Amino acid sequence: MKRLIWAGWSRSVRPAMRRYREALRHPEQAQRQVHAACMRELAGTAFARAHGLNAHTALDAFRRQVPVLDPPEWEGWVKRILHGEKEVLTRTPVERLVPTGGSTGPVKLIPMTSASRREYALAVDLWIGDTLYGHPRIQQGRAYIATSPAKSFSVPDAALPVGYADDRAYLNPVVRKLFQRLLVVPTDVATLRGDVWKSQVTTLLQRARDLRFLSIWHPGYLEALFESDDFEQLKTQWPDLAVISCWADGACACHAERLRQAFPHATLQRKGLWLTEGVISIPWRGHTPLALLNGFLEFETLSGHLLLAHELESGMCARPILTNHAGITRVRLGDLVEITEFYEDTPCIRWMGRADAVSDICGEKLSDAQVAAALKEAGMPADACLRADANRQPPAYELLTSAASVDLIALDHALSRNPHYDWARTLGQLGPPRLTRGIPSAPRPGEHAKSSRLFLNPPTG
Fold it and tell me: Number of C-alpha atoms within 13 angstroms, CB side, residue 166?
């Protein structure tokens, strides 16, 4: 049965894979078609009226009339959706608001519509289809696709649901009903919390001798989830593991290499750049080309020039600017990428790190504004600030203050309002905050001086 379900999934995604192969050869044409589709979705909305847009707005006019928006500017439009206003950013009704790390507060909310789900599902199909094409052994067993444990989000006066959708919402209809039979850990385990969730996941993984495909986000996930002896046993319990898909760029590179060495018989697949906002690049034939069918992409170079996908050159570093069916319109993302090569005529990218005042040791995405709010909520002294320390095991944040006594538990609780920080703490990838007496007069070498309450990079000396 497992082989039949995998084979059915593989057949169902062939039309999408043909479209993507064609797009890779003609990125400019593919992106213009995606832009036109986004304009049709945007037409008639409050955002479109404010910027003089309609369903037929040409690309050049769109780029003249809509300024590039930083997340705080765009989040103001989302608040109107949160309070019940219709057709603010999309014609398609918003089903829910999905939380992610916010730039100005604990949580940023991303609209989800049926159109944006289909857009994301297309990326999933391309990823799975290409993975099965390159590694047919996967069809002989099951998969583990990591999800976060359940977390409640209480948003005052919310007019629609706030929270994560079931993973099956991002699958095509052919495999949605049969998906559970492919999974080592059923999707309903994500409704559990804390130690109960962790016990269920570890028990099921330890029993899964037919595991063929492991999809996680941070490559340190398994080491955080299992005790060291249990982690060592996994190497023999998964003898036929074929593929490990995970982040492998930027600060994750060293963890990815350790994972590769732990499971040398499995192929380590660079996952590409997948964000709650949308998909920027996907794994394809051993490369990570731009996700040309999953949103309209522009890039802001370090010199401030705005380029389209087909205008990029190898060696450039830039910040992606995204427009898609979730109502995200010319939003400047907080990630910095490098154009490494071309596959067919399409740029491939490598994630370099965060370009804004955000600390991201293992996916927690703590912004300076979040840290300032958490320090205030926890009653920290006025001179307090936070510093990332990735050199400890597990990594953690140092609270620097002249005060002799502070409530670190309250600080940890306040920081956990960021869902990504909470997830990293639940898993054990981040340790609790630690107190360090004193305030640095200036950042150490390698630290980022841009933010006032958060020093971004770990100490180097």
Answer: 12
- Domain extent, residue 378, equals 358-455
Cβ atoms 411, 380 nearer than 8 A: yes
Condensed to tens digits (0 to 9), the pLDDT of residues 139-189 reads 999 999 987 666 666 777 888 988 877 777 777 777 777 888 899 998 888
Q: Are residues 343 and 415 in the same domain?
A: no
Q: Does residue 202 lie within any of the structural domains?
A: yes
Q: For residue range 193-221, list pLDDT tens digits in order.
A: 888 888 999 999 999 999 999 999 889 89
CB 239 within 8 A of CB 255: no
Report the largest interatomic distance among the alpha carbons of the chain, rounded to a whole angstrom. 64
Helix H or strand E encompassing 107: strand 107-113
Question: Comparing C-alpha atoms, which of 398, 391, 390, 404 is closest to residue 362?
Answer: 390
136 touches 267 (CB < 8 A): no
Task: Give the number of other Cβ atoms within 10 Å of residue 29's Cβ.
Answer: 13
* Token pair listed for 258: 């350790």
Side-chain-facing half-sphere of 238: CA atoms under 13 Å: 29
Q: Considering only CA atoms, which of 430, 434, 259 is closest in space to residue 360?
A: 430
140 DSSP 8-state letter: G
Mark residue 327 as left, alpha or beta (left: phi above 0; alpha: psi -120 to 50; beta: remaining): left
Residue 449 has pLDDT above 50, yes or no: no
> Among residues 307, 335, 356, which one ends one of the domains?
356
- Note whether 148 and 297 are same-domain residues: yes
- Does this model's pTM top 0.85? no
State the CB neighbour count (10 A cutoff) for residue 364.
Answer: 26
At 326 the pLDDT is 95
Q: Are residues 289 and 218 in the same domain?
A: yes
Same domain, 388 and 345: no
Question: Are the C-beta atoms of residues 30 and 344 closer than 8 Å to each other?
Answer: no
Is the same domain home to 403 and 347?
Answer: no
How many DSSP H helices and E strands does the chain contain? Answer: 15, 18
